[in-house]
Amino acid sequence: MNLEVRVAGLELQHPVLNASGIMGESLDGLLAIGRSGVSALVTKSYTPSPRQPYPMPRVIHLDMGSLNAVGLANPGIEGLRDHMRALAGLGIPIIVSVAGSLPEDFAKVAAVAEEAGAAAVELNLSCPHVEKMGLDIGMDPVMSRKVVSAVASTVKIPVIAKLGISDKMVETAEASLEAGAKGLTLINTVRAMRIDVYSLRPALGHGIGGLSGPAIHPIAVRAVYEVYRELRPDIFGAGGVERWEDAVELILAGAKAVQVGSGLVRRGLQVIGEIKRGIADYMNYMGFKSLTDMVGAAARQ
Description:
The structure is a single chain. By secondary structure, this protein is of the alpha/beta class. It has a single domain (5-294), classed as Aldolase class I (TIM Barrel). 37% of the residues lie in helices and 19% in strands. It has helices at 27-34, 76-87, 103-115, 135-138, 141-152, 169-178, 217-231, 244-253, 262-267, 271-286, 291-294; strands at residues 5-7, 10-12, 16-18, 41-42, 59-62, 65-68, 94-98, 120-125, 159-163, 183-186, 190-192, 195-196, 201-202, 209-212, 235-238, 257-260. The protein has an eight-stranded parallel β-sheet with strand order 3-16-15-10-9-8-7-4. Helix 8 links the parallel strand 15 and strand 16. The radius of gyration is 18 Å and the shape is globular. The two termini are 23 Å apart.
């Protein structure tokens, strides 16, 4: 089966990547993911200056997934440069996730990423638990357009906008594409929280966090389906991908590639190979000759 795919200007050997942030807090984690068989490596989000993590606990594991509120902790631009030097030996495209509060923040980090050898940048317009960053930007089509435009006019490598769930998701997607995004990542974690019934306090140190895992997969499928049906963009589908069936569902909804996040933690690094093989077996069973034949098949019915 031909699993090769061109998405957002990137030539990939197969459609299975990792999602930003999961196991990517350290260089060792990034290297481990990069060696797991992913077709490209997506880094954790970097901001212009270093950010410290939120108070513990930062991650809670649930039956249906996980809640996390790390706070976009990262080593800033200098740490990005150091990490990129170490990741260069992986021999696969590196997609650098970028975050900030202002358009110029995103552009500054993206420029450093390009200089350091990134194949593309993914703009984090969807982190659900950091004020004035992430989803606060991605819910506003006007602000999203400004951020994407600032980055697209600064770098030559592909720009990917990572969007979360909002009432204006399709409108924001359209604005991002018109501003120069070559593709979209849909979706990020979903804003959520849990209460400790004995301490009578929020279970996460920050209170509100992002829900990931199987619980959000149907939401991700809906998001990909709606955006693909309206705009036909290049999409990286993300949200609760733990088995090949999850990946196939997102591809049939309109995604050209999929990102695995909490599945890496819940099932281990071998999940990348399992999903890749499952997609190939499914294609053979259903008679699909190439991955592109599958993309959006459900939305075209």
